[in-house]
Design goal:
single chain; 415 residues; 0% strand
């Protein structure tokens, strides 16, 4: 009985942690959008694209393999200790990559004002990635309370520090990046002592690296393609329409926060339930589960879309200020993308359950090629509306391929 109570308590803490992180990110984006203005928030959004890129690589190379392989290790402590070493090396070189990349882009675009953000961005990336690794280790080791503490110190501290600077009417963009670095560092310094990193053996590093690489090499390609497809339109819009475009798109994404929380929750509970249905002797259990999931997800998104699009101008003004109300037309059509995102997400969950990840990779490759071919022409012709059209096109094609994969390999067969 106590084991069940502990299990459900850990699950509740995990859900609360995800809601807290999403809520804090929502509030932080509101503060930044108001304080920095449309153009300043656009610059921040572009810099954060670099953070998202590094996080995508980290997930594929370190996090996903760890979550799958660590429970299978005889000496899990030694494996996690070695992985911590990999993480520190990765974080350092990711910071160097960001520093060099921003300086090279600044020189290439002849925009020297960007150079001042290179160092704070590099430091933010180093400590942000280490903190993210540590929180995942806590969840893996069923130390949900420590994971929550880590996120409260990092994300909660970040929003409090930014809010303090906001009240002083002194919130430079580099200050936001330093706040991210400082709070992530404090989180790591306070909680790392409670992680069981012991039994490190340097001679095992190559073996563990090979194990991780054999698992993650296809995931890395897929993650990079997803990042490329998801951010290409933002980068293209910024280069053609100005950096403010990136801020406007990010504002639209931020207002769909409840849907992002739903997708995060699905990543946690759907795989386990789907695997249970797959093992069930009941005929068609998996198909029935995913049909119900489609209905629930679509119903939830429909409610959010109606509420957001019906009062788009009000929400933009209420949360972000009058500077953003001119873009209410974009918000009204941008939210419709989430129906396609939902289809894409649910189909990928089904294919992962069936261990048909090759179809996911194929869909991501084709979606990336479509995005690359249409992004600049569409944005050049239709402005910000082209971002929505291009995103919809790539999502529609990817979803069609994913559905075809499900149809051929499962839905067309009796289960």
């Amino acid at each position: 009985m106590n084991g069940k109570i502990f299990k459900y308590t850990s699950i509740n803490i995990t859900i609360f942690d995800q809601c807290m992180v999403s809520g804090v990110s929502f509030i932080l984006n509101i503060l930044l959008a108001r304080a920095l203005g449309v153009e300043g928030f656009g610059v921040f959004s572009l810099l954060w694209v670099v953070v998202l890129f590094v996080s995508s690589v980290q997930l594929a190379l370190i996090i996903y393999p760890m979550l799958t392989l660590a429970p299978l290790q005889e000496d899990r402590s030694a494996y996690l200790s070695t992985l911590l070493c990999f993480q520190l090396i990765f974080s350092f070189f990711a910071g160097v990559f960001a520093y060099v990349g921003v300086n090279m882009f600044s020189a290439y675009s002849q925009n020297e004002s960007l150079m001042i953000y290179a160092f704070p961005l590099a430091v933010a990336i180093i400590f942000h990635t280490v903190q993210d690794f540590l929180r995942r280790v806590f969840f893996l080791c069923e130390l949900a309370k420590l994971a929550l503490l880590s996120d409260v110190l990092s994300y909660g501290g970040r929003v409090l520090l930014v809010f303090y600077l906001y009240t002083l009417n002194s919130l430079p963009l580099e200050g936001v990046l330093y706040a991210t670095a400082i709070c992530s560092f404090i989180s790591v310094a306070v909680t790392i002592r409670y992680a069981n990193f012991s039994g490190f053996n340097a001679s095992q590093m190559i073996d563990f690296f090979n194990v991780n690489w054999s698992f993650s090499k296809w995931l890395l390609g897929s993650s990079l393609l997803q990042w490329f497809t998801g951010n290409l339109f933002v980068v293209a819009a910024s280069s053609l329409l100005g950096v403010a475009a990136a801020g406007v798109v990010r504002v639209c994404q931020n207002l769909m926060g409840p849907v992002h929380v739903l997708f995060l929750a699905m990543d946690n509970f759907v795989p386990a339930k789907a695997a249970e249905c797959l093992r069930s002797p009941e005929k068609g259990a998996l198909s029935l589960y995913f049909r119900k999931l489609f209905i629930i997800v679509f119903g939830f998104i429909l409610i959010v879309v109606i509420v957001v699009s019906s009062f788009s101008g009000f929400w933009l003004d209420f949360f972000y200020g009058s500077d953003y109300t001119d873009y209410s037309f974009l918000l009204r059509i941008y939210v419709l993308l989430y129906f396609l995102v939902a289809i894409n997400t649910v189909l990928k969950l089904l294919l992962r359950t069936l261990k048909l990840t090759k179809m996911i990779f194929i869909a991501d490759v084709i979606a990336a090629l479509v995005a690359l071919s249409v992004a600049f022409p569409l944005i050049k012709s239709y402005g910000l509306t082209g971002v929505v059209i291009g995103s919809a096109l790539s999502l529609l094609i990817a979803s069609s391929i994913l559905f075809l994969g499900c149809r051929i390999n499962y839905l067309g067969k009796k289960s």
